[in-house]
Structures are given as structure tokens and as C-alpha cells.
Specification:
One of its GO terms (molecular function) is DNA-binding transcription factor activity. InterPro entries: ArsR-like_HTH, HTH_ArsR_DNA-bd_dom, HTH_MetalResp_TranReg, WH-like_DNA-bd_sf, WH_DNA-bd_sf. Keywords: DNA-binding, Transcription, Transcription regulation. This is Helix-turn-helix transcriptional regulator. The chain is an alpha+beta fold. It is built from 5 helices and 2 strands, in the order ααββααα. Helices cover about 55% and strands about 15% of the residues. The protein has a two-stranded antiparallel ribbon with strand order 1-2. A hairpin with a 2-residue loop joins β1 (about 30-35) and β2 (about 40-45). α1 (about 5-10) packs across α5.
Length: about 90
């Protein structure tokens, strides 16, 4: 996801989003790349390999949180409105 999408869907400020993403990147959980003024994030491949059980647990466990459905609906609504004018990331990232 692009940072602007994360901000909108989770209703976070740009600075708050940036701080969280920077911390996750510094810990080796996320990778990122920039394209023009946009930054795109994904879960680091090494982190996924080394923490497969944790990642699986989180993927299942997050769905049980009360906020999960609301976040999913917010994403669908945001995505359907095409509000982000960021560039689509490269395939494979």
C-alpha cells in the first residue's frame, strides 16, 4: 500500500504513519521503495521466512479484532473512490 492509503484507511496523520512505518522498517519487518514522491511498503521477505508462525498467527488473529472489519470496509471505500493519485508499484515488490 502507498502511505497515503494507509493514512486514509486508518485515519492517521502523515507524521504518525511515518513514525510507525519507520520503526517497522528499522526493525527489519518492512521493506520500502520510493517512486517519485510516493513510498511503498511491504513485509520483508526475510522476516516472513524467519517468522512464518508469527505472521500466520497475526494474519488470522487480526481478523478477530473488532476494528478489523471497519478497517477492511474503510479500505474498500477508499480504494473504490480512486482518491490516491500515487503511481502503481512495480510488480514483484
Amino acid at each position: 500500500m502507498c502511505v497515503c492509503e494507509i493514512e486514509a484507511v486508518l485515519n492517521l496523520s502523515q507524521s504518525n504513519t511515518s513514525r510507525h512505518l519507520t520503526a517497522l522498517k528499522q526493525c527489519g519487518i518492512l521493506d520500502s521503495f520510493k517512486k517519485a514522491q510516493w513510498t511503498y511498503y511491504r513485509i520483508n521477505d526475510r522476516f516472513k521466512r524467519e517468522n512464518a508462525k508469527l505472521l500466520g498467527y497475526l494474519q488470522d488473529g487480526l481478523k478477530e479484532l473488532p476494528t478489523y472489519q471497519a478497517d477492511q470496509e474503510a479500505y474498500k471505500k477508499y480504494d473504490s473512490q480512486n482518491l490516491c493519485d500515487c503511481i502503481t508499484p512495480q510488480q514483484g515488490f
